[in-house]
Inverse folding.
């Protein structure tokens, strides 16, 4: 039996993922209260906050810039308060899709051919084959995600993606099955396959009820499943490690997982992907929240990342 703690749940915040974060934080706060913890909630919408006195731990349910890019982690490190997820340096690196890809490629993990564009007037990149995937270098929740099928669609696709940030990562589109694997406390969770009913897994399909089918555990054989899980572990290690993350891949027809991104603060509603994977392994939402709290107390992210 665990000892009740003073836990501050941070939710909302000023990023474009505010609404999703509010949902995650509300679900986490309810679960922790149900476990007997003393829970307060803070919405740092103006980037200023004051933790309640005697706070033992902060449960980060923030997403996107400020909450997931290392900024909040650095503030909490300065206060000496442990928190869930990954440390400041890992969060900052993983949030930058280019830096994360480079780190993973350096570990031998497959990645798509790419380039970075920051000029709205740039022409179609030479050396990359259509179709292309465009995404802001530092954004989450598929904000700014665009698909360019033809040269004629390039200018509008680039303009829309640039609205999500100052730089756009342009990648050759990889054909295969989209999957995600959660890593909690160094343990890979069951793989989830993501299948939009129509189109790609963009913001609308991600957050519209019934628009996407999720298969967990994904229907891969044991060898392929372990290969995906190992790639997830390697990707988290490549960006510096942490107590919790979710890693996304496209799995080619030959079984090779091609890295997409590392999410250091995955969604935490009861229907989010990390909780789905935990549930498939027999871990309830409340137990998952407790697990993340215990990891933060026993292995603070700052110490975990050196």
């Amino acid at each position: 039996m665990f000892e009740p703690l003073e836990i501050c749940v941070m939710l909302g915040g000023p990023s474009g993922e505010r609404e999703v974060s509010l949902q995650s934080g509300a679900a986490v706060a309810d679960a922790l209260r149900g476990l007997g913890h003393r829970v307060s909630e803070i919405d740092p919408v103006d980037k200023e906050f004051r933790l309640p006195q005697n706070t033992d731990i902060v449960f980060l349910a923030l997403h996107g810039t400020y909450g997931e890019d290392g900024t909040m982690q650095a503030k909490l490190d300065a206060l000496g308060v442990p928190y869930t997820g990954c440390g400041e340096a890992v969060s900052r690196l993983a949030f930058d899709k280019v830096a994360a890809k480079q780190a993973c490629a350096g570990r031998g993990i497959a990645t798509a051919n790419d380039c970075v564009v920051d000029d709205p007037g740039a022409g179609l990149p030479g050396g990359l084959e259509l179709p292309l995937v465009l995404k802001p270098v530092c954004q989450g929740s598929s904000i700014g995600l665009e698909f360019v099928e033809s040269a004629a669609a390039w200018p509008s696709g680039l303009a829309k993606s640039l609205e999500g940030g100052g730089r756009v990562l342009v990648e050759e589109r990889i054909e295969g099955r989209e999957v995600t694997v959660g890593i909690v406390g160094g343990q890979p969770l069951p793989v989830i396959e993501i299948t939009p009913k129509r189109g790609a897994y963009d913001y609308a399909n991600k957050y519209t009820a019934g628009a996407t089918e999720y298969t967990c555990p994904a229907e891969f054989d044991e060898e392929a499943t372990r290969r995906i899980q190992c790639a997830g572990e390697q990707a988290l290690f490549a960006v510096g490690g942490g107590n919790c993350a979710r890693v996304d891949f496209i799995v080619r027809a030959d079984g090779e997982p091609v890295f997409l991104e590392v999410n250091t603060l995955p969604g935490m509603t009861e229907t989010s992907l990390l909780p789905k994977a935990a549930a498939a392994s027999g871990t309830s939402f409340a137990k998952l929240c407790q697990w993340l709290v215990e990891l933060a107390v026993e292995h603070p992210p700052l110490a975990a990342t050196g």
